[in-house]
Write a structure and sequence with these properties.
The structure is a single chain. The N and C termini lie close together (11 Å). This protein has a single domain, classed as Class I glutamine amidotransferase (GATase) domain (Rossmann fold), CATH 3.40.50.880. Helix 2 packs across helix 3. The strands form three sheets. It has a nine-stranded mixed beta sheet with strand order 4-3-5-6-13-12-11-8-9, sandwiched between helices. Strands 1-2 form a two-stranded antiparallel sheet. Strands 7-10 form a two-stranded antiparallel ribbon. By secondary structure, the protein is of the alpha/beta class. It contains seven helices and 13 strands.
Length: 253
Amino acid sequence: MTLIWGNYKLPHFFMEKIKLGILQVNHDKSEDIGDKFPDDAHRFRDLFDSLESRFKYKIYMTIGDELPNDINEQDVYLISGSPLSVRDNHSFSKKLYEFIRSCDSQQKPLIGTCFGHQAIAVALGGNVEKSKIKWNVGVEKTKFDNFKPWMLPKKDLNLYVFHEDQVSALPENCELLGFTKNCPISSFSKGNHIFSIQSHPEFDFRFMRDIVKKYEEMLGPNIYDEASASLSKDVDGDAFGLWCENFIKLNYS
């Protein structure tokens, strides 16, 4: 559907909201974190609502086995992060991987972050292993040697990270986009319809500070001290949000 305005044709995303389905694979019920901060889906909504585009959101509680009945229910999908491990078999794992493969085969735009990044890799034939440094936590710079058309402005990104698993082998026909000091496969794509990153662009300082503090004992003194010190760095979550907006528009132009 195209609107004619003077001598110009406006693509349909200027006329109707693009439908963004967020597959949430985390549900924090704790009083100190879950009751204090927005959940994963709302953190992404806050990130994207600062952009020029306005999306129509649908949240799927995938952690509770909820997935779209029809891949065309939404225009684009995003799989959130989670404290769960992709290496474990969850009640929703099989259906989630089938959904990811359907998105790939039908070239339905799909974004993955952290757990979502890893789940896409596994579903498409890649591999995920525990990090050799155990926990990678704090602010880490993702360096990009390969920029896709939607990755504007072209720049390396400082982003929050909190993970012990990481992609160790890319699926076939996927391209490495970015890497970090501690994570060699931090971002990848497939065609123009799949885009993923290990980091947490949706986190803000207060949330990251509190979860680092909560897991101080689990992290141990060395990792905790290094992670806490890194939180003084500025982060580029807004830039990643803009990349996602460009990625979505590229698929609907």
